[in-house]
Design brief:
Blueprint: E1 10-15, E2 18-23, H1 25-29, H2 31-35, H3 38-50, H4 53-69, E3 75-78, E4 82-86, H5 87-106, E5 120-123, H6 138-149, H7 151-163, E6 167-170, H8 177-185, E7 189-194, E8 197-202, E9 204-207, E10 221-224, H9 227-234, E11 239-242, E12 246-252, H10 261-274, E13 281-285, H11 294-302, H12 318-326, H13 331-344, E14 358-363, E15 370-372, E16 380-382, H14 386-393, E17 409-414, H15 417-420, H16 423-438, E18 448-451, H17 457-464, H18 468-473, H19 495-502, E19 509-512, E20 529-531, H20 534-543, E21 556-557, E22 563-564, H21 566-569, H22 573-583, H23 587-597, H24 600-603, E23 637-646, H25 653-656, H26 667-674, H27 692-698, E24 717-720, E25 725-728, H28 729-738, E26 743-747, H29 759-766, E27 769-774, H30 779-787, E28 791-794, H31 801-804, E29 811-816, E30 826-832, E31 838-845, H32 850-858, H33 861-875
Parallel strand pairs: 2-8, 4-5, 4-9, 5-6, 9-10, 12-13, 12-14, 17-18, 17-19, 19-20, 23-26, 26-27, 27-28
Antiparallel strand pairs: 1-2, 3-11, 7-8, 15-16, 21-22, 23-29, 24-25, 28-31, 29-30, 30-31
Helix pairs in contact: 3-4, 5-7, 5-33, 10-11, 12-13, 16-20, 16-22, 27-29, 29-30
């Protein structure tokens, strides 16, 4: 047995005349080290490098103790080296910081003391809407509109980059945050100059977006967190996590010709959701892993939240180095990455089989072309299956629409970093468009098309390969470089579709290359969507009809009367290889990014030069939030509460806090119009995340959300139990608060699935919700609830909202003693029936660490940061 109590020493090697040092964990721990999954080797290195001497032995013992059962209840501290955010998660976080600076100043503390201690990169990528499309100037028009609509918020971001240390903003047009991370920010191996030479360590980070694991595809350990957890990290607190269970996905064989990275990602999503993955780390290994390009790995890693995982990690190997070379990294650094990974024992060994909590086998040669949907990313089907699925829905048109099929494709979007960051997928789409163009095919007029790459470099390599013109010829002009349709910024539906929907003549469908297709996610009026590869998006767009079997039926009839099938259009591997070789140049990536970063319109935005942000009391975009206050306190204790809402399974963060367009006929629109905004130009909910008054009213505003307390109620309403009246949720919550009556929420499985948005939890805190009782929680939302001081409680096995049969007037008694609360500890709950009678349950605190207990006792992340800052200022005046 190896000595796992050894103290690792620093080893060294020389490369190109430079001496490098690193923690020699392989030398210290021997075989036991290589039995650990690579992700745990990385956590071990992070802990030993960052923890105090007195804590290192305990951390190492806990991690090696994991090997016995493949699981552990022990906690470990993780200190990432950097934080990545996008504009609609950074805005509320930076608004919180601005408000905390005000609170500190009012408490007599220098507000300038509050600064991030880690580098924070902000990508402005979540606010680009597809207004103009299928025209050569669409990207420029959409960018101009984005800057006009969001000028006030963007000026605030520019203030933050000047007022706060370590905050860097990447302006609109530079690309999607995860693509920027891959192409520009990730070092893979970091270096630090010191007296003993240059020390090396792995690049590790967190991001305030659930798809941050995309960076796992090139060997960087990173995952998504909520904005609230990111605030604790950026101000110097380590994030404590229970040593994770690690699912090993053994890959064998190789993908067949014609099968894409998207098909593999959708297959992995289905397989892992089927076994109930929920928050575990996932690591890919085996001989098949070595056959995948870095681009393919990144597509699979990106969808980690869709398959329920925290990570989707691929270790470093030659494909990683090839990707760094492809994107223009210096050769000296590429050599350094390879040398360090081998010596540190974190490189991919295709023949190795470390210890995992459990192993899932996937034969790559058995993966086929797929789509997923029409409402969840884990619902996998052959690409030929959309016809049978839609026919099974039984939609019967009430009227006839001129020329439109009953399941007309309303939106066809090549969107999302998930697939547009892989040049092979975009090139395949361009080649399919070329063949369609040569056959004289065009997309039907009722289909809204868009191409939104994750990087402006895509335009360069597509143009050089001659594919931009082909894409434009079939309607897929570039609409900009941002998240667009994937996050619901799809813009208005075509008029023909809107009119046909109003007449009851069509039940339209979206097809997209994104990662999520929840009801209302892509567009508030669409409840059907299929995920698929970029070339398949174009094929379905050309068909114009989702109710078509593209394995047997033609995509379209050409102008000369030929039936053009998918097999006639699909490019082969040699064609893709040739187009890639013709199109790609390493210099494109840095060059295109540099040009986009220098956008004169962005540079022209004026912003204040003050330590405190000057709030405008008339603003409908930015308001000082009430929870950023030294007066906030914890919500634990013994209390009897009314249920504000009772919900079912799969309540997503889009239900909890929508991001898409603000409906002009909604109460939220009325609120904004009363304050001077134009009803026909309200932008999206995500653009209002700096205004707590808007976001509180937007909480739970979703057409597809069913409140079991009053299923018949209008959107965004609930029943106020004492009066029996049906009211807007925020109004009912205000009445409960005025009467001093606590409220809670009850939900089913996978509560909070979806995006990392912290407003999904902030909205609940502003509504006065003290606890959420659910069958299960998605990882990031659970963390965000705790970050806002809301106690997440898991219902006992077999207990669901349906079995509880909560009715209006029932009350819920919770005994959450702050002194007795422990991670995963029991919490007594009683259901007090309105008609008499009591039922007793024993719920479990969905709390994982001692740090989370502390945050709940203090009332959340923001009170904790304020308290620590004030204490530090008083200790070191």
């Amino acid at each position: 047995m190896e000595n796992t109590n050894a103290t690792p020493r620093r080893a060294s090697f020389t490369l190109d005349g430079v001496r490098y040092t690193y923690l020699d964990l392989a030398g210290a721990y021997g075989e036991a080290y290589f039995r650990l999954p690579v992700v745990l080797r990385l956590l071990l290195e992070n802990a030993l490098r960052n923890m105090a001497d007195t804590e290192r032995d305990a951390a190492a013992a806990a991690l090696f103790g994991w090997l016995e059962q493949g699981t552990s209840e022990a906690e470990i501290a993780f200190q990432p080296g950097r934080v990545l955010m996008h504009d609609t998660t950074s805005t509320p976080a930076l608004v919180d910081i601005a408000a905390m600076r005000d609170a500190l100043a009012e408490a007599g503390v220098d507000p300038g003391l509050l600064n991030p201690v880690l580098p924070v990169d902000v990508s402005v990528d979540h606010s680009l809407a597809v207004e103009a499309y299928a025209r050569a100037d669409a990207a420029a028009l959409n960018l101009d509109l984005e800057l006009r609509r969001n000028a006030e918020r963007y000026r605030f971001l520019r203030w933050a980059s000047k007022a706060l240390s370590n905050v860097r903003i990447h302006p609109p047009g530079t690309g999607i945050m995860h693509t920027i991370n891959l192409e520009q920010l990730a070092a893979v191996v970091c270096r630090k100059d010191g007296a003993d030479g240059v020390s090396l360590h792995p690049d590790m980070m967190i991001g305030t977006d659930s798809h941050t694991p995309m960076i796992n595809g090139i060997g960087v350990l990173g995952w998504g967190v909520g904005g609230l957890e990111a605030q604790t990290v950026m101000f110097g607190m380590p994030t404590l996590l229970r040593i994770p269970d690690v699912i090993g996905v053994r890959l064998t064989g190789a993908l067949a010709p014609g099968v894409t990275a998207t098909d593999l990602a959708l297959t992995v999503t289905q397989r892992l959701r089927a076994i109930g993955v929920s928050g575990e780390f996932v690591e890919f290994f085996g001989p098949g892993a070595a056959t995948l390009s870095a681009g393919t790995r990144c597509v699979v890693a990106n969808m980690a939240p869709e398959y329920g995982a925290t990570t989707g990690y691929f270790p470093i190997d030659g494909e990683t180095l090839a990707y760094l070379r492809q994107t223009g990294r210096p050769e000296a650094h590429i050599a350094l990455v390879g040398a360090y990974a081998e010596r540190a024992g974190i490189a991919l060994d295709p023949d190795a089989a470390p210890r995992y909590t459990r192993v899932v086998d996937i034969a790559l040669d058995r993966v086929q072309m797929h789509v997923a949907g029409p409402k969840r990313p884990q619902d996998l089907h052959p690409y030929t299956g959309t016809k049978a699925i839609l026919q099974g829905l039984g939609f019967a048109p009430r009227a006839r629409a001129d020329g439109l099929p009953r399941h007309a494709i309303a939106i066809a979007a090549i969107t999302s970093c998930t697939n547009t960051s892989d040049p092979r997928l975009l090139t395949a789409a361009g080649l399919l468009a070329r063949k369609a163009r040569q056959a004289g095919l065009r997309v039907p007029a009722w289909v809204k098309t868009s191409l939104g790459p994750g990087s402006p470099a895509a335009a360069a390599y597509l143009a050089r390969a001659g594919l931009l013109e082909d894409l434009a010829a079939v309607g897929f002009d570039i609409v900009g470089y941002g998240c667009t349709t994937c996050i619901g910024n799809s813009g208005p539906l075509p008029a023909a579709v809107r009119d046909a929907m109003a007449a009851g003549a069509v039940h339209p469908v979206a097809v997209l290359s994104g990662n999520r297709n929840f009801t209302g996610r892509i567009h508030p009026d669409l409840d059907l969507g299929f995920l698929m590869s970029p070339p398949l998006v174009i094929a379905f767009a050309l068909a114009g009809d989702a109710e078509r079997d593209l394995g047997r039926e033609p995509v379209q009839i050409s102008p000369d009367g030929r039936a053009i099938h998918l097999r006639d259009l699909w490019p082969d591997e040699a064609e893709i290889d040739a187009a890639l070789a013709a199109g790609q140049r390493p210099g494109d990536y840095r060059g295109a990014f540099r040009i986009a970063s220098a956008n004169p319109a962005w540079q022209a935005l004026q912003s204040p030069d003050t330590a405190r942000f000057p709030w405008d009391p008339a603003s409908t975009a930015l308001r000082r939030p009430p929870f950023a206050s030294t007066e906030e306190a914890g919500q634990l204790g013994r209390y009897t509460a009314y249920p504000l809402l009772v919900l079912g399974d799969d309540v997503t963060t889009d239900h909890l806090s929508p991001a898409s367009a603000i409906p002009p006929d909604s109460p939220i629109a009325d609120f904004l119009v009363e304050r001077g905004d134009k009803r026909d130009d309200l932008n999206v909910f995500a653009s209002r995340r700096g205004n707590w008054q808007v976001m509180m009213r937007a909480a739970f505003y979703s057409k597809s959300l069913v409140n079991l307390l009053c299923p018949e109620a209008p959107v965004g309403h609930t029943r106020h139990a004492p009066s029996g009246g049906i009211e807007p949720i925020w109004a009912a919550a205000a009445r409960y608060a005025q009467a001093g009556q606590p409220v809670v929420l009850v939900a089913g499985e996978r509560y909070g699935t979806g995006s990392s948005r912290d407003w999904a939890a902030k909205g609940q805190r502003l509504l006065g919700i003290r606890a959420v009782l659910a069958v299960s929680f998605e990882r990031i939302h659970r963390s965000n609830l705790i970050g806002m001081g809301i106690l997440p409680l898991r219902l006992p096995e077999g207990v669901t909202p349906a079995s509880l049969r909560i009715r209006s007037g029932d009350r819920i008694d919770i005994d959450a003693d702050p002194a007795a609360l422990t991670p995963r500890g029991a919490v007594p709950v009683r259901i007090l029936r309105a008609g008499g009678g009591t039922e007793t349950l024993l719920a479990a605190a969905a709390v994982e660490t001692r740090l989370e207990i502390r945050l709940l006792r203090m009332g959340g992340v923001i009170p904790a940061i304020l308290s620590d800052t004030i204490e530090s200022a008083q200790s070191h005046p």
